Amino acid sequence: MFHALFRSIFRVLPLLLVLSPVNSSSCAMGNKTEIRVKYENILSHDVDELVNMSAEYRDRCCKNKKHENSKVFFCNDTQEIESLQSMACNMLRFFHKQKISKDFRWKAALVSCRTLQVLQCKCERHKKEKVCTQVNTHNTEDTETSEQSKKKCNQEFCELKENISSLRSCWNKFEKIISR
Amino acid sequence: MLRMTQMSTVLSIFVLFLHTTFGESGCTSADGDGTFGDDEPDNFEFDCFSQLEFKDSYSSLTCNFTELPPHHTNYSLALCTKEDSNYVCFNMEKQEDAYFLQFTDILSNKDICMVSEMKRRVCRSLVVTDIVKPEVPFNINITYQKEANEYLIHYSTPHSWKKYLKDKLIHQIAYRQEEGTWKTIESPYLQVKLLGKNLENDASYEVKVRSQPNGDYFKGMWSEWSASKSFRTTRELHSTETYSSVVVVILSILGFMLSIVMIVLMVTFWENRIKPAVWPNLPDHKKTLEQLCKKPKNNFDISFNPESFGYVHIHKVDGIRAKAELENFLQPSTAPETNLPEKFRNGSDLKMIPVTTDKSNLNPSVTYRGIWPAEALHRLLGTSQFAATEGNCGSSTYEVCHSNGVPLCKDGFNLSSAPPQDPSGQPGPEPLSGDTASQMLPTREMRSPNNEEAYVTMSSFYKIQ
């Protein structure tokens, strides 16, 4: 009796493993040439525009601030795609931060969504679907807030600026690798 | 037991097959909901084009039906995107004969679906970056470059200040003569040049421009034509104009140089030549007289006062002239001989023999006062007459003391002895010159009893001269 039970369990378990979703990784193995082309022709312009927009805001108060998720800002060698995914998903958190300028938040979310789209990645907590849907439709219902003064500075704003800078650096690094 | 195991294995394999089949596959049904009941293809065709960065970060999609559906049926178009196993569709807005939609996602693959009233849906895949239609160029400017004989055509495009299509377009320039055939030029830049030699002279031309993605990543179609711009070419006198302009320049330079030379000459010769000729001075009598008459030398004494000539050295009478005059005087003539004996009859002293010569022969050389050589007097008066003289005849010379019957010597006045003459009768050591007016006797010895008459004589000398 027990032998039959064990045999059935041990045979089912492999089936369960087979029946589990095929892709368990959050990023698909996309064509690097296609990634490079999409980045050079479209995404790079958006990243530059976001960086220029970020530079318009004063960040004197951001020099001595320490961030909680400092690990997010590292672009690990041989793990550039994963690093970019982590940065993009982290940036989506700021889409609902009302202390930050609406246009700035929307642009940052757009870059995050396109980064995930080019890399064919998903976020762990499935926040991407809702935010990117709103971004693509430019739904401003949840983003209505007072315009942030460019003179004011807050913790979230500083963290977002650093996130943007890290994203740009990591993309430059990854582009050089895939352009070889 | 064995049968149960086999059945479970078969079922698991079957389930696995189904899972693999439906696990990651997309919905390819026309409905988009997994059913295949409405996959009948329709023959309605429509064309779509996209415009990137139509408004800020939004792009647009515009679709037109090439074959209109039947009027009794209403259709709508929707743009669908698959996101994480979800099929999200956005209905397009109908605007007159076209369907329009704004969106931001231009990276993912999309489907364009036509939905009928009966919920039938026909979809077709669509890549937004492959159906790009750029915006219309504008602001065409034509500039003629005379030196190169070229027409520079410059234009602008809205994509110059946008992100995606900047420097990724090809522009087509079309030009034609009035109502002629269009000729085209393609360029990736925002300006082109038309050679003047390839165009008709003095003709009107029309130019228009349109754009298209260059095809490296973005593909698509030509934009609409821009507004036409007309211009007129120059006349054929280009070469002749150049020649005439060169001639004009050379002539102007020569004229300028000539005017400068004329000015310099006028300034240089104004006082000396031009002004006297153009504005001659009125003659001044005094100056004219001075110009006519020779100016005397600085040492020349212009004075008619005999006293001022006291320092003047009296030159001897020219011997030849004296001889000539003496011969004239010695010629037989009653007048002088008759007078002679009367004079010598006095015998007391020597007196000047009045020499009455012909006035016509009177000249300063004759009327001067000179010292007659003794031989001449001897011949004239005879030796006997001379012997009767007194000791005063020791001097061999005699001085004439009369001239023109005017006694010139005072009584008892001894004539100064003159150097003895050469017995041969040669002229004296100081022959007289032609200008014998200067032969003046010392005024203190031969003073005329009448000074006014002497002045008259001197002035007459001056006048005759």
TrEMBL record, chain A:
Localization of this protein: Secreted
Entries under Gene3D superfamilies matching the protein: 1.20.1250.50
Signal peptide: 1-24
Presence of keyword Glycoprotein: yes
Gene Ontology CC terms, in alphabetical order: extracellular space
Keywords (A to Z) from UniProt: Cytokine, Disulfide bond, Glycoprotein, Growth factor, Secreted, Signal
One of the protein's GO biological processes: immune response
GO molecular function: cytokine activity; growth factor activity; interleukin-7 receptor binding
Superkingdom of origin organism: Eukaryota
InterPro entries given in the database record: IL-7 (IPR001181), IL7_sf (IPR038325)
Family per similarity comment: Belongs to the IL-7/IL-9 family.
Protein name, UniProt field: Interleukin-7
Species, as recorded: Accipiter nisus
From TrEMBL, chain B:
N-terminal signal peptide: 1-23
Subcellular location field: Membrane
Stretches for region Disordered: 412-452
Membrane topology: Single-pass type I membrane protein
Biased composition (Pro residues): 420-430
Pfam families in the cross-refs: FN3_7
GO molecular function: cytokine receptor activity
Domain Fibronectin type-III: residue ranges: 136-236
Transmembrane stretches, start-end: 243-270
A GO term from the CC aspect: external side of plasma membrane
GO biological process: hemopoiesis; positive regulation of receptor signaling pathway via JAK-STAT
Keywords associated with the record: Disulfide bond, Glycoprotein, Membrane, Phosphoprotein, Receptor, Signal, Transmembrane, Transmembrane helix, Ubl conjugation
PANTHER family reported for this sequence: CYTOKINE RECEPTOR, INTERLEUKIN-7 RECEPTOR SUBUNIT ALPHA
Family assignment from sequence similarity: Belongs to the type I cytokine receptor family. Type 4 subfamily.
Purpose of the protein: Receptor for interleukin-7. Also acts as a receptor for thymic stromal lymphopoietin (TSLP).
Subunit structure: The IL7 receptor is a heterodimer of IL7R and IL2RG. The TSLP receptor is a heterodimer of CRLF2 and IL7R. Interacts with CD53.
Name of protein: Interleukin-7 receptor subunit alpha
Organism: Accipiter nisus (Eurasian sparrowhawk)
